[in-house]
Amino acid sequence: MSSGLLNTATRATLSSSFFPKSHLHRLFSSSSKPFPSLLPARSSPSLRISTMADAPDAGMDAVQRRLMFDDECILVDENDRVVGHDTKYNCHLMEKIESENLLHRAFSVFLFNSKNELLLQQRSATKVTFPLVWTNTCCSHPLYRESELIDEECLGVRNAAQRKLLDELGIPAEDVPVDQFIPLGRMLYKAPSDGKWGEHELDYLLFTVRDVNVHPNPDEVADIKYVNQEELKELLRKADAGEEGLKLSPWFRLVVDNFLFKWWDHVEKRTIKEAADMKTIHRLT
Questions:
Q1: What does the UniProt keyword field contain (predicted)?
Q2: Position 6 pLDDT exceeds 50
């Protein structure tokens, strides 16, 4: 992976797609802090269109197809340093995950109401990875854009979380101010979805306690429910027993098994910030 100066084409792409002209001198000046090294573009727009048309999964849901090819995830190393970007499609192909060790930044939101109940969602049947599994409130990726690349106080990730809560659950931004997301930790994990797709993520775990208006987007979400601790434990029992065909996402299960219930106690005591540890990257399997 090249770590040298950005080439002319890459600079032009950044200028037109991500950064206002007023930021260019700051970003590329030798006297300023260097911008993270970027991977070369995987394909030109014309080649990408051809790939979409010729792909063996051409029957993919149109909304999911657009997200898979248009969204650019942030590639990081195992210490969470930005090393480039690639399409959501490539970042979730197990072949590329294994052959190129593609690791991308992600987030998982855990939203509790004032009764300390956790909002869960069941992923839509049209989702490419892990369709119809139950998981935490919202799980997605910050994208390779200026507002979601801000590392200070995890602001880029929190901006992305606010955006996706609206996209997936119809929760308006005013219901979930970015300063109300509390980053509690980071975990690195890899999980196959099927023979073709999977996840390899460095996942930021964000907690918030808010009473919100929810209007799920059927392209993203099949169902929602609020659960208390005992109801979640019953959900886990059913999933472990294979009852009702109930399945949980692997990242949600890792959080449940390693952190959730002790953090939930802090939610109930309103001492959640005391549980935060953003220095450690938990490598989980």
A1: Chlorophyll biosynthesis, Isomerase, Isoprene biosynthesis
A2: no
Mean pLDDT (the chain, rounded): 83
DSSP H helical ranges for the chain: 8-17, 21-28, 45-54, 62-70, 88-91, 94-100, 155-169, 229-241, 250-255, 261-269
Residue 43 lies in a domain: no
Q: Are strands 182-192 and 281-283 parallel, antiparallel or unpaired?
A: parallel
Does one domain contain both 31 and 142?
Answer: no
Identify whether residues 8 and 101 lie together within a single domain: no
CA 27: distance to chain centroid? Answer: 25
Task: Give the global pTM.
Answer: 0.78
Q: How confident is the model at residue 67 (pLDDT cuts 50, 70, 90)?
A: low
Q: Which amino acid is at 151?
A: D
21 and 143 inside one domain: no
We report the CATH number of the domain holding residue 209 as 3.90.79.10
Q: Supply the pLDDT for residue 269.
A: 97
Q: How many domains does the chain have?
A: 2
Is residue 157 predicted with pLDDT exceeding 70? yes
Q: Which of 91, 139, 148, 199 is flagged as catalytic?
A: 139
Respond yes or no: is residue 139 known to be catalytic: yes
Asked, for residue 60, whether it belongs to a domain, the answer is yes
Length of the chain: 285
SS3 187: strand
DSSP letter string over 30-82? TTSPPPPP-PPPSS-HHHHHHHHHH-TTTTS-HHHHHHHHH-EEEEE-TT--E
Residue 243 or 46, more confident? 243
Does 10 share its domain with 74? no
Catalytic residue among 148, 168, 199, 201: 201
